[in-house]
Amino acid sequence: MFEEMPNPLLEIYPSVQDLEQLARDRVPHLSWEYLQSGTGDEHALDRNRKAFADVSLPPRVMRGKLQPDLSVSLFGKNYALPFGIAPVGLTGLMWPRAEYFLAATAKKYGIPYCLSTVATETPETIGPLVGEQGWFQLYPPVMKDVRADLLKRAADSGFHTLVMTADVPVPSRRERTKRAGLRMPPKTTFKMILDTLAHPKWAMGTIKNGTPRLRTIEKYTPEKSREAATAYVNQNLGGNLDWDYLKEVRDLWQGPVILKGVMHPEDALQAVASGVDGIVVSNHGGRQFDATPASLEVLPDIVSAVKGKTAILFDSGIRSGLDILKALHLGAEFVLLGRAFIYGVIAMEQKGSDHVVDILVDELKNNMMQLGRERL
Ligand SMILES: Cc1cc2nc3c(=O)[nH]c(=O)nc-3n(C[C@H](O)[C@H](O)[C@H](O)COP(=O)(O)O)c2cc1C
Asked: What's the CATH fold of domain 9-55+66-371?
């Protein structure tokens, strides 16, 4: 268990929403829109948040002195806390060196950090920094030699748990990011230059660290450019996933394999039949398909179908410790957060990323005591 220290920042920024507000003005418009966007009319994005508002938990009273224990066991490993950092791609577009801060937070608090295939840093760089807490997210390469190489690179760099993302059969249209100017090939406009100059800390960091690039993927492209890597991702990562592919990946990877993006009980059952160790009930933070239900809405049916047969993880829409308790109440065993951690990094770099954990821990403990519970 990490050593708990009083955090005076909890008085000033007591919630993730405070960090979100603080982050808003620290990055150019394009970076912010990339982080915040859903897809289509963003109904799925809204649904994810609203679903939490509709869950209530009846508190118990007269329980004496309570000492909440937040630890959980997952895949035979003890985690100090019931949450981890979800895979987020193009991380450096939102804040330079974001992966470094997230890895350090994961290591400090003993929570998993899942590095994305399309992060802006490589498994070779981040693996040694994240130590024991490294999970690797795979977007499924069409070419089997690339798949084998990516898995080997991740395992050799110390990542022990594999998360394969199932819910990107094709890149999302994500209209809001297009309106903000995210184009293929990338196009820099005069307005973007002015916007960058208006955010000097982001701009200086980006100059120092280099323009955000898909560094993991560059190994497989003839040219080392953002354009080449993005084109490669669109053509060669995804669009090919089926249950046989999952079984092959299961056989290739030594450690736990988790399928992320499961939203239907029958898919959950099929995932179990294909030998996964866990699933993430997730709609990708509302970024892929706008008619999807909220992840929280489908969680109970999936839990009824596969509870006890595989580990059930959850993400999409979590912004607080109380949200975590609600997801656990509905049957999740562990949760991931995407945007919340990026708000922290943008707001205050390392301090901000750590502060997200402190907020969640404080909220979890307080609300467990309000509920009259000591264990998750
Ligand atoms: C900016 C951004 C980039 C993301 N990139 C990836 C990715 O590369 N791979 C992946 O599996 N999921 C990706 N996701 C989805 C997250 O892993 C996670 O499912 C989602 O953020 C959870 O919702 P939340 O942001 O409300 O916590 C991304 C999400 C965001 C916000």
From this structure: TIM Barrel (3.20.20)
